[in-house]
Each structure stands twice: as structure tokens, then as C-alpha cells.
Amino acid sequence: MGATLRDVAAMAGVSVKTASNVVNGLAFVKPENVRRVTEAIRALGYQPNMAARNLRTGRTGVICLAVPQLAFNYFGELAEAVMAAAQARGQKVLIELTGGDREHELELLKRPQLSLFDGVLFSPLGMSQEDADQLQTDYPLVLLGERILMGPADHVLMENIGGAKRATEHLIQTGHRRIAVIGARSHDIVGSGPLRVSGYKEALAQAGLPFDEALIVEQDDWHRMGGYVATMELIGRQIEFDAIFALNDELALGALRALYQEQLAVPDAVALVGFDNLVDSQFSMPGLTTVDPCRADIAETALKTLLERICDRRKKKIGPARTIRVSSNLVVRESAPGPNH
Amino acid sequence: MGATLRDVAAMAGVSVKTASNVVNGLAFVKPENVRRVTEAIRALGYQPNMAARNLRTGRTGVICLAVPQLAFNYFGELAEAVMAAAQARGQKVLIELTGGDREHELELLKRPQLSLFDGVLFSPLGMSQEDADQLQTDYPLVLLGERILMGPADHVLMENIGGAKRATEHLIQTGHRRIAVIGARSHDIVGSGPLRVSGYKEALAQAGLPFDEALIVEQDDWHRMGGYVATMELIGRQIEFDAIFALNDELALGALRALYQEQLAVPDAVALVGFDNLVDSQFSMPGLTTVDPCRADIAETALKTLLERICDRRKKKIGPARTIRVSSNLVVRESAPGPNH
DNA sequence: AAGCCTCAGGTAAACGTTGTAACGACTGTT
DNA sequence: AACAGTCGTTACAACGTTTACCTGAGGCTT
Q: What domains are defined for chain B?
């Protein structure tokens, strides 16, 4: 079916290597020959055989993105951001689903289908800090997310503490004093939960507000249902609160539903801020004020880092593991409007 | 880095071919040699080089899934279903985003990065019926969705008419007589919209109920916001209605919000049925009654069909294009409960 | 005992590309 | 006129598999 470079060369009346040079455009080729080869390529509908190229060069132009699930909005949007970044750089993306399962994640790290891709962008969920040394791989690997810190691999993370602090500050600046938190996971040592809570605490401390344990609602399930349940629990506590900082957007969307149901107007009775800036939050009613972790930047940074590693490795250069933090910013919508509202 | 088959063979003291036979397990090899080769593979941590295998066999074990977006829940969940099916068959999936853009879709069809995958699972959005002949490709291609019918490629579609009919019947059986439809797209010739509306009409006709144009709300935007807007428009029409059939789940979720806001209790004042059975619908409040298109079956069927095509093509067998319809079923939740509620 | 299966495994040629080394043809310098 | 340097090109050897094709060694039939 597919025409080969040999066919192209034959048609253009040059050697295979010259044809190859035209395709890759790195050596000096006489304009006349460039023209003839290009013409032959067009005429034959030639497309380079990736398998052969991979075999020869050892590079595939494909990167593997390992995420728990796509149906979770957060990961779906992350994957999309990564793919957009990859497309811009002419890379293909092979997605591998881990299901957030520790065993599966470790298995994937240990026995990757190498030679199918050049490197891995890995967003762990089931693994935790004690598995950190498993991240010492002999292939390029960049980590995403906050499940594991200080590992031996490059790491791109979002500004959890700063973002949470900014969100809380926004609520304080707009006159809220009793700010509840839903979605806390005090049993986690690392992970986004504790980080975001500490950002919240920082903001309180800085504003001279007291930290009230009663305002913190634990909730492991970081989805809509969890947000609903946590908010109902908060309301059930019969304590005063005038704002909620949901540790992620899905929790916030669930909270929104609970507040509606309990006739607590948002933002007038209770202001609400989330974290993640999911597409859904943009279309909720009211629109959700939330911390935008700048997924596009994260994806872009992670991909750039990975590609650098891939490139370095070919030159036998191996630098120390880097940790890069991508700054976030607050998106103000109706659920917690700005001061001059 | 990676050990080669030659290394394995050398260590086991056999020829490369024997080692290869052990790896692929198809020829007769003496148990003793199997043991030695297996041992060598383990000792060296050998992993087959896919690029070389691909080059030799012409198969990659990777299929390409082309979808508009992942951030749209529907496609995210479809992609996930496809990947799950692929994983079960030891296939990898390379995702290509088209953005739902016609130009991009056509480009992808015409110039696929072949030799990077064995076939394509394609879910068009921007293309329409007049582009049908572009689907005549010389590589294995299976179509998903209802944008294009009667094309020259294999096609897996969901049971739109039947599902919509079943949803409407359910509403009728539970005593509803004035069933509104939101999300109609009367300008579309093909596509899920018109099909689902005709299922709705069939159910009405069969029950002897009149079709009332006033109950149909047009809406192009099949997302939450569109559902909200359409429902508000419906309410604004000041006509009687006791149920809403939203043409997809996102519309239904938007409708849910509008109904809450307007204090119309679901399901007591207005029952609501959606279509797609998204994960979100399971966690909405109240849970959404919806038509489950059985995405897992669709994905499984599509993949099976594609793999058959891939296999046939190697044997130079090319059968006629097939169209396979996967049956759907109704998932009854609180937004439109069953008769004995 | 010659012939013929089956089993087991070796040899070497592909697959389509790129990198290496080499070569001829110019240009400009000594 | 000899030399080095650049340009443009080519032949050939990889890359790691799989797969024709071939070779023996047994066991069985004739």
C-alpha cells in the first residue's frame, strides 16, 4: 500500500538518502532535487513509516500520559490540556488508564511499553509517599499532582497553598468572617487536601482571624455527592458560617446543590469558592468563583520538561530532578463576587 | 539500555529464532529451552522492541481514537469505555482530538499518521452527510455516532429512536400527558437530535397522544447552559407541561437547575428524563432517569469490528460496510420514578 | 533399510528508515 | 598548481524483529 522512500527516490532519480534528507530537511540538497523529490512524494502520496523511523532513531514522537480516569472531570480536562500542548509540538499522546489503583500504577512504572513512546507523564493517585523511590526509572518521567513529593523524578505541581490562600483572602476581603472548609482529609500526609487547608489557615492567620475546627468538614469523596453530603453536615452542625471554601470544584458543585435545597442563597447568605476551575463551574448557576490552577500552563510545562529530558537523555546528560510549581489565579464569578458588587 | 532478543538467545544458548518462538509461543520448543529462555528474559529484563516488531509485522497493537474533545463529558466517557475495551484486548489507544472541526476531521481522515496505529475509531462531529464519501479510506476505519449515515465505512450506532421511545413511554406509563422536549435541532437532517425526537413522536402516536409543537423547545447548545435556557423558555411559554424529555443528559442537568430555581419540584410537578447516562446524572439531585446507550457495549462492539477489519485486511479480505446498532435501556432514578413509586 | 512424516532449531533475509563514511565537484586560498 | 574547505550526493551498514527456508534427528511406515 504505502509508498516507500525507495520508491520516491527511484521516481525522483536520486538516492534513498537524498530523499531522506529532503524529508527531514537537515542536509544540503540541490533545489532542483528538492523539487523533484517533493514532487515524487506528492505523486506517490508518500508517508514516512514511523515504525522504521522509530527503530532507527529510537524516538517515537509519542508520549504516554498515565491518568486514573477520564470520566473524572479533573483528569479529563488535564488530559485534554496535555493533548493540546502535545499537538502544538507535533507529539502524539498515548493514554494509559491506571484507575487510580496503586498496584496498577506501580506495574505501569515498572513495566512500561517502552519503545512505544519516548517518555511518560504520570499522574499518580493510588501511590503514596512511601512509593516515592519507585519513581526512579531509567526512562524520562515527569510527575503531575501532589500525591508524592520530593521524589527522584521531575515534578510539576500546582500552587495549592498560594491558590487556597488567595481564595480565602478573597472571601475575607469581601467581608466574610466565618469561612467553612469542606473536603478536608486530615489523615492524608501529602496531597492537595492538606496543602489547600494550610493555605486557608495562612490567610486566616494573616488577617488575624481565629481558626475554628468546627468549620472544617472532613470528606474523602471529592465529587459532587461528597460536596452535597459535607455541606448538609455543615448545616446540621447549627453553627454560624457565611462562606464555604470547597477544596475542589466538584465538592463546590455538590455544595451548591445542598445550599439551594436548604434555601441558603449564594452568594448573599453564603459565599462559595472552589478550586480547579472545571468547565462545569463556568456553567453552574451561579457561576462558581474558583482557583484556576492554569491547567494549560501545567500541561505545557510538564510536556516541555519531559521533552527536555528526552532530548538530554540522548546526549547522555542527566541532571538532578526538578520541581516546578505553576502559579494559579483566582477566577471571580457570582458565587463569591468581588468587593464592588 | 534494553536487552535485545539476541542477548536473550546468547544467554540461553539458543538461536534468536528459538528465543523469538518462546516469546510468541507459537512453535514447538523443547521444554528445557523454554525454561532457559524464560529465565534469560527475566534475568535481563527483556522487553520486546515494538518498533522493530511493528516494522516487521506491519501491526502496531495501537488503535487511534478520534474524538472532538475529552472535556465534554460524553466524549470523555466514550473514550474511557473504548480504552477499557482496548485494555482488555491488549491494545493501546492513541487519542486524537479533532475539536469537532470539520476541516480538522477531514484532514485527519486523509492524512492519518498510519504506521503509528492499525486502524481508526472515528467519532465525527463537524462533518456531515455530504462528506460521507470521504470515509472511503484504504485503512481500517470504524465510525461512531449518528452524524453520518449510510457511509462506506463500518458504523456502530446507538439505539436513538428506540431509546427515546422507551423514555417517552416510561413517562406516559407513569401518568404524564404533556411531555415537553428540550434540545430539538429541527435544522439537522441527521444526528441524534432528530432521531430522538422521532422516537418521542412514535411513543406519543402509539399511546394515542397528540403531538403539540408548542412543547418542543429548540436548542443547539447541548450542554448544561443550553438545558437551563431551554427550560426557562419552556416555562416562559406559559403552557401546561408535566414532564420534560431532555435530548441529552447535559441538557437535563441544566433543566434540573432551572426547575429548582423556578420552584417546580422534580419529579412531582415535572418529571425529567435525559439521554446518555453520564456519570454526573447518577450523582445529580434528584438522580436523573435517563436512557443508557450502553457505552461499554458500543465501545466493545466498535473495537471488535475494527480488529476484525484489521485482521481481514491482512488476509486481503474486504467485506461490505456493516452498520451495527447497540441496544439501549432505560435507567430509572428519582427524576422520573417507576409506576410503583 | 529406504522413505517419510513430525519435532526442534539454526541461517539469513527481509521490513523502511537514518547515520557513517566516503567521494566527486566545485570555490577560494596559498 | 596544490591544498583545504564546503557542498551535494551516494553506498552501505545498522536498528531488533519475524519469517522463509533449510537441516537434522528421531520414530514410524513400507
A: 5-55 (1.10.260.40), 59-158+295-327 (3.40.50.2300), 160-292 (3.40.50.2300)
